[in-house]
């Protein structure tokens, strides 16, 4: 184990999933607050809705384990903190000819292609009953999966930069600390403002697939805004407004 700033870093060559390992650690051992797991490869990486996350060597696969010093009701806002941390970290490498956007609820796009994804899961430690938040972050650095539901790419293809995962990790952790501090001291408003400034298709028509008790539903409408809980506000052509907590957005 190594350390950076006040983060404890556990490195793995190959693992089934950093998210799964984080949950297991909380079941069997004491974990320092602000621990991060990073793996060269994952055999069972996963994203939202238990979807498979293809984990190719040379890409970035990490899980941050924290005990946020904010109300648990506000923990979902750390998805936006994480997205901005990724965006701020990558921004210095993408150049003026490339465009970085955020796609609600948890993706980072580069030139309209998915380059990073974020996953939040809560867990209670079996040893001391403390509540933890595990933040999974995957970034395509040198390779991207093919035949995905949304176009994907990687940093090297889009920018020519071949970033090293550990280099990215240190810069990302520094940015995470900065953005999380903004959330703690100033609230969600400045986070929301920065995210919306680079949000994909804000003010434009989108469609959102959401899960319902009867299966799924597609909502078509204009992406208006985010509310103070990070919910997507969408208005249908009939003038009906929805505040969505989760869903898959398509343009």
From TrEMBL:
<dbReference type="Pfam" id="PF03099">
    <property type="entry name" value="BPL_LplA_LipB"/>
</dbReference>
<keyword id="KW-0547">Nucleotide-binding</keyword>
<dbReference type="InterPro" id="IPR008988">
    <property type="entry name" value="Transcriptional_repressor_C"/>
</dbReference>
<dbReference type="InterPro" id="IPR003142">
    <property type="entry name" value="BPL_C"/>
</dbReference>
<dbReference type="InterPro" id="IPR045864">
    <property type="entry name" value="aa-tRNA-synth_II/BPL/LPL"/>
</dbReference>
<keyword id="KW-0067">ATP-binding</keyword>
<keyword id="KW-0092">Biotin</keyword>
<dbReference type="InterPro" id="IPR004408">
    <property type="entry name" value="Biotin_CoA_COase_ligase"/>
</dbReference>
<dbReference type="GO" id="GO:0005737">
    <property type="term" value="C:cytoplasm"/>
</dbReference>
<dbReference type="GO" id="GO:0004077">
    <property type="term" value="F:biotin--[biotin carboxyl-carrier protein] ligase activity"/>
</dbReference>
<dbReference type="InterPro" id="IPR004143">
    <property type="entry name" value="BPL_LPL_catalytic"/>
</dbReference>
<dbReference type="Pfam" id="PF02237">
    <property type="entry name" value="BPL_C"/>
</dbReference>
<keyword id="KW-0436">Ligase</keyword>
<feature type="domain" description="BPL/LPL catalytic">
    <location>
        <begin position="3"/>
        <end position="184"/>
    </location>
</feature>
<dbReference type="GO" id="GO:0005524">
    <property type="term" value="F:ATP binding"/>
</dbReference>
<protein>
    <recommendedName>
        <fullName>biotin--[biotin carboxyl-carrier protein] ligase</fullName>
        <ecNumber>6.3.4.15</ecNumber>
    </recommendedName>
</protein>
